Amino acid sequence: MQDDAFRFIHASDFHLEEPLCVGDDVPDALSDLLLDAPYHAAEQVFETTLAERADFLVLAGDIVDFRTAGPRAATFLIEQFRRLQQRGIAVYWAGGRVDRVSRGDWQDFLPENVHLFDCDGVECIVHDRNNQPLVEIVGRSRRGKNKAKIRELKPEHTLFSVGVAHGRWPASEVAKQQVDYLALGGEHAHMLLTEEARSAAYSGTPQGRSFEETGPHGCTIVDVSAAQSTSIRRVSTDAVRCVTVAVDGAAARDSRAVSGALEAHLDDLTESADGVDQLVTCRIDDTSARAPSGGARVAAEMLEALRKKFGSRSPAVWPVAVSWNSGPHLPASWFDEQSIRGEFLRAVREVERQSENGPDVQTLVPQWCESDGTVSGLALMDDGDRSGALRRVASMGAGLLSGQDLIDDDA
Length: 411
Ligand SMILES: [Mn+2]
Prior knowledge:
By secondary structure, the protein is of the alpha/beta class. It has three domains: about 5-235, 4-Layer Sandwich (Purple Acid Phosphatase, chain A, domain 2), CATH 3.60.21; about 240-325; about 330-410, no CATH class. Helix content is about 30%, strand content about 25%. It has helices spanning about 30-50, 65-70, 70-85, 105, 170-175, 255-270, 295-310, 330-335, 340-355, 375, 385-400; strands spanning about 5-10, 55-60, 90-95, 115, 125-130, 130-140, 160-165, 180-185, 190-195, 200, 220-225, 230-235, 240-250, 275-285, 315-325. It has a six-stranded mixed sheet, covered by helices on one side. It starts with 5 loop residues before the first strand and ends in a 9-residue tail after the last helix. It binds manganese (II) ion. Manganese (II) ion (MN) binds near residues 13, 186 and 188. Manganese (II) ion binds near residues 13, 15, 62 and 186.
């Protein structure tokens, strides 16, 4: 790296107190891993910081809930912080929703290379290299609902500036960003909010915890050039990965073809495993009139067969569940009829065709219920989620307008 160029790691939401939540239907060999995965993943963040020879590590909250994690978490963190200390690497930590750490209470217990931000107000710290100011870090820990405002994370110097905070803010607030790079915590999926002269990003958790948090998780490496331009890379740190595969049951000839399609998906996962154990839920979406009435039983048989075939692979590809989502087949004539039901169904079909990302239901959530989880829980991330949700909307609405319940919740 050139003299004034530098590199830092942005991570958040270790949640060392929280093991993976994927049900207890996993083999013994995997269940230990589910307990330890958050620690393995967090350790990889520290490994990455060392391997990348980063100047410092930024932790944007929700690292651990000390009330429930037990002494193992404290021992682990202090040990990892000391590893960085030995290499002269600083840690800047802003407390989040669960860690409830603030400088006054905790600073004495932490190695000297760790700076915990105050929760009463914003602090600006100048990080030096060879006694020369290199970068300014502006942060504030969170206390309950009392979190930093984006616009108050304001640098005091002309150096490159990094802001650190935990929470969710409306886009209009994020737009008031004053720092060059805004390192946020509180979203468990990685998100790049802006990427122009100034970037703002959520690093996401290093370890997904459930089938709500599928796909790779990790931390973010930020390189800042001597000319102060930023480039961002992602590195995966997760020890176990939750994956959902979906097949179109309506398009398959019979249940044997559905099994074949699922097996092909699991084979692909084995090939792209990259050394990471994977837990898989399989979803068969079938709205055809000929969906088997005993869908749940067929699904259970498929699950057993898939476990026999894939269960002992290493790295593991473990099928956790197979679900057969056989929504009711709505008669085509309903879509054409001149009635409120017909109009409703045409509107849903239009939404399905219209945009790839919509409907953006998150924007319909009133501000007062912007609490953690509510808004992100409404995100229809992949096409399967989205078409499944819209199918249920069509069935539920058509059912209400026909005076009958068309949704089979046991499916
Ligand atoms: Mn969190």
